[in-house]
């Protein structure tokens, strides 16, 4: 691939559509098609690849996103650091709509998604990924988290530093009982797309961190009718401009040279495959 990038942003067209000189690049992967083309552009002197997580027409529900293809495509394009914004529900009343939270932990409550590249199934090139077990105690790149936090503070949008993102299967929202249970664990926010993105990124030795925007209070934290999709879209629409500003600022704050350890996640392991 001639067009290369170093930083990936997984998010919708609201983030890249107004950039100058955006190049659309189609990437094929051993895992099938990514959600869409990559859209490559330049920001703060860095080459950035944007990937619309749900497809540019937003036609893919969270459980049907080809997460393996998405992360593989980004790596194949040269990306080594990924910023992953996502809309979430607040599980605690103190995290109401408009809260920007940079999680430091994750709980996986998804059910049907392929979570690994190392499953023993041969790739089209004949190589066979071995079974490997990676450390995942701290699921996010700390350098990426700090870049997002610093960018938000600089913008004047005080972020919440840390908290647990609970990822549910969707596409439905939680029942009130599920939501109350999640909240009772002390978890901060709930979403549908932050996993298995995070672990797949680790398996490809990519830096990955999430930047969550609270669009609603989840069913267990509010006393009304529960979450509606319209409400989520409205709050997201109201905040997408400043979320984009923070993201773009964060891109420029990512270290040019990685020394965070994410790039050594597979060191010493015989994976059986060669990463792109
Ligand atoms: Zn890292």
From TrEMBL:
Q: Which GO terms describe its biological process?
A: L-methionine salvage from methylthioadenosine; purine ribonucleoside salvage
Determine the domain of life of the protein's source. Answer: Bacteria
Catalysed reaction equations from the record? a purine D-ribonucleoside + phosphate = a purine nucleobase + alpha-D-ribose 1-phosphate
Which SUPFAM superfamilies does this entry report, sorted A to Z? Purine and uridine phosphorylases
Q: InterPro entries in the record, alphabetically? A: MTAP (IPR010044), Nucleoside_phosphorylase_d (IPR000845), Nucleoside_phosphorylase_sf (IPR035994)
EC no. given is: 2.4.2.1
Question: Is the keyword Transferase in the record?
Answer: yes
Binding, phosphate: 13, 53-54, 193
**Pathway the protein takes part in:** Purine metabolism; purine nucleoside salvage
Q: Which Pfam families match?
A: PNP_UDP_1
Annotated positions binding substrate: 192, 216-218
> Which CDD domains does this chain map to?
MTAP_SsMTAPII_like_MTIP
Q: What class of enzyme is it?
A: transferase
Q: Which UniProt keywords apply?
A: Glycosyltransferase, Purine salvage, Transferase
Ranges for domain Nucleoside phosphorylase come to: 6-247
GO CC annotation terms, alphabetical? cytosol
Output the Gene Ontology terms for molecular function. S-methyl-5-thioadenosine phosphorylase activity
> According to UniProt, where does the site described as Important for substrate specificity lie?
174, 229
Which family is this sequence assigned to? Answer: Belongs to the PNP/MTAP phosphorylase family. MTAP subfamily.
Q: What else is known?
A: Although this enzyme belongs to the family of MTA phosphorylases based on sequence homology, it lacks several conserved amino acids in the substrate binding pocket that confer specificity towards MTA.
Subunit details: Homohexamer. Dimer of a homotrimer.
Q: What is the annotated role of this protein in its UniProt record?
A: Purine nucleoside phosphorylase involved in purine salvage.
Q: Which HAMAP family match?
A: MTAP (MF_01963)
Q: What is this protein called?
A: Purine nucleoside phosphorylase
Q: Which species does this protein come from?
A: Streptomyces daliensis
């Amino acid at each position: 691939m001639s067009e290369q990038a170093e930083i990936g942003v997984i998010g919708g067209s609201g983030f890249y559509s107004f950039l100058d000189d955006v190049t659309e690049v189609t990437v094929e992967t051993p895992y099938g098609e990514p959600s869409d083309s990559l859209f490559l552009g330049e920001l703060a002197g860095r080459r950035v690849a944007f990937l619309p997580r749900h497809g540019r027409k937003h036609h893919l529900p969270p459980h049907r996103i080809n997460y393996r293809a998405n992360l593989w495509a980004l790596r194949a394009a040269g990306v080594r650091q990924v910023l992953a914004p996502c809309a979430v529900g607040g599980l605690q009343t103190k995290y109401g709509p408009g809260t920007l939270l940079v999680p430091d932990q994750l709980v996986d409550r998804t059910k049907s998604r392929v979570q690994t590249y190392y499953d023993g199934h041969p790739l089209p090139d004949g190589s066979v990924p071995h079974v490997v077990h990676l450390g995942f105690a701290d699921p996010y790149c700390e350098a990426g988290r700090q870049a997002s936090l610093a960018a938000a503070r600089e913008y004047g949008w005080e972020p919440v530093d840390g908290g647990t993102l609970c990822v549910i299967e969707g596409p439905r929202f939680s029942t009130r009982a599920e939501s109350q249970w999640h909240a009772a664990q002390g978890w901060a926010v709930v979403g549908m797309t932050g996993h298995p993105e995070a672990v797949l990124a680790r398996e490809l030795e990519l830096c990955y961190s999430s930047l969550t925007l609270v669009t609603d209070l989840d069913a267990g934290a509010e006393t009304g009718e529960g979450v509606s999709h319209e409400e989520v879209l409205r709050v997201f629409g109201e905040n997408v401009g400043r979320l984009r500003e923070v993201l773009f600022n964060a891109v420029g704050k990512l270290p040019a040279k990685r020394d965070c350890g994410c790039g050594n996640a597979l060191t010493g392991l015989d994976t059986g495959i060669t990463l792109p």
